[in-house]
Structures
1.
Amino acid sequence: MNTATLWKPEIIENAYKDFILNQTHPCIMAKALFKTEKYTLKAYKDINREKSLQRLMTDLGEYVAQYDFETKGFQSFIAAFPNNHYEDELSFEEDLWQALQTLHEIDDCEWDPNVSRDPENPNFSFSLKGRAFYVVGLHPKSSRIARQAPFPTLVFNLHSQFEKLREMGTYEKVRDTIRANDKDLQGEINPVLRDFGTDSETKQYSGREVENSWKCPFHHKNS
């Protein structure tokens, strides 16, 4: 498939719909969002180019500005990079963290005070435009079937949405269902998964089973 074809929005969107809805994807939240079209999907030229990340930052700012934080509904922001290609998980992981570092450095807002900015802290969550996000990295070469998206992808899920699930008393049920589905799909759940507050969520972003000695490469610009 050539680059011109990859950039057709309907091709990109249909590829994600097939990945989430037509295949045995374990995440019931992702399925619900795609069925109800409660997501924003944008494509960018290059995850390694600051110009592309500047566009992503602008789009995230607009996404946060329009989001109704009083609603109980859920949404996701999906950033696709169809021109980037990876042959292994480490290469993707390196670019994921470099992209997040760049986004942080061009961000003009303070870190969300509801979460830690220390990537080693169990209460860390990534902050952009003053709001905390749980970031999910996906790419075709992931060892996790659930993360083998059609293109390299960064999914930005607002941290507040998970807190709403807890307030509603449904977080554990949703979590356990997703993990059971993932185990059925791959034989085991992703070993890096932990609940917020028990370990740094940075270990979960790339989808790779990181080593015990792994250190998150992210650094807050004011640290």
2.
Amino acid sequence: MSEHERIDTAEKPGRLMDLMHSTTVVARKCLAIQPGQSVLIVTDTEVSPMVYHAMAAAVHIAGGIPLVAIMRPLEHANAEPPNTIGAAMKEADITIAMVSRTITHTRAREIATQEHKRRYLLIPAVTEDMLMRGASTADFDVVKEITMGTAKALSRGKQVRVTSEHGTDLVFSVEGRPFRAYFGECIKPGDVSLFPGGEANTLPVEETINGTVVYDSFMMGVGLLVNPITVEFERGRATAIRGGREADTLKRILDGTKSEDSFRFGEFAVGTNYRARTIGNAFEDKQVYGTVHIALGSGVAWPKYYKPNYHAPIHLDGVLSSPTISVDGAVAVTGRRVLVAPKPPEE
């Protein structure tokens, strides 16, 4: 039995109080909800009702107007939500996606945030345990400081090299592609963010991405990895995927989208949440302090600086557990330590 399943056997009142602690941080610190603002909570039938009820309560207490939309689980991460939910996302002041499979890299989200300037906060693959332990319990202000420091330092460089003891050796340029700090804050019109926060990411210059990536920890759609997955990249595209059963599963998922763009390099990010755990939950695993995640498929965007000129029907993050990152020849991350940002508190 997994940890989050054991947690679900606890008494309801105690769980609700713990859940309210995290959802109150979302309402007050991440979103700064103001009286009268409409907040659409998008969820699905794989998510515990305790989770979205606690979120709705936190929105209500903050003075917002919560609306809960429950859909069937999507076929895969970043599949388009039903049209009715997409329409609601355009109208609500804020959307909180508390879903078992993310809807961040979808046209529905892009239209809501980029064209209608609505705010969007993702709380993906969410369980009661995820909101009661680990990354969600980290000090919001500390994670903000570490993440902003990491993004600022990495953005000063031009050339990045990533290596690992498992065989990763990847190089690319980030010139003109600054890193964006995601620590959970979603305040301004059109903002897109993630809770629990804890990553600094970018989309490298596509044609400069070359080399080998060995995913050794986690791959979205596959789960925790027993056998590493090796992916070869040439000019920003995956040209070969090797490994055991997990690699075969990844290839089937990508082939199943019927889109060549699913094999593109979509994101490079550093985890900055000092309480995040490796538990087989994509959106906690990829924020573990000092790790790296690299995505296949739809590319991350920062419209002020860069935006992919394609749209893949999928975005799959894979985690490297202990990489070394060098920026313009200087080591920035190694041994699960971020050397260019404030240190996390001693636990």
3.
Amino acid sequence: MDQGDDTAVARRTAAAVAGHLGDEAAARAGLGDPSPAVRATALSALARMERATTDDVRAALADGDPAVRRRALEVAVPFADVDLVGMLLHDDDDLVVETAAWALGERGGDDEAVAALSVVATSHDEALCREAAAAALGAIGDPAGLPALLAATRDKPAVRRRAVIALAPFEGEEVTEALQRALTDRDWQVRQAAEDLLAED
């Protein structure tokens, strides 16, 4: 991240300060900076002063650097007309996919988002992405996401824990069976999460 580049550090600092001072012009100047760290900070600065636009967010989502795309996803949550599903399914950076899942969970998803999250939760190569998608499905609480969550309760421990917690908004025999099964899971955190949810019922 521009280590040793004092000039880039200074530009990044200037962009961050601009966000606190409400200096839109100074923050916006950083969007085209050669340093990804400066571009990401400039976008955050604009968001802080509520001056980021849909075009700003879309441009950052298409940035060649994954750190900028991740920052754009964080900023994009309130921009309902900005597509996040494409990032979720097609980005080649796992941390971008994870952040896209989080953003969809924060925003609340439509049918397309739930379907995409279900695909990630059950088939992505990276467990971190499957875990994030499960969490987002739980946050959205759409019944269409339940089959993916039930499948995720049989994944790796971290994914199983998240999937069990994500079952909280759901009811039904399948949910109860999954929670009962989780009570005997090898991972104590999975067992605890299931116990807590069953106790709430």
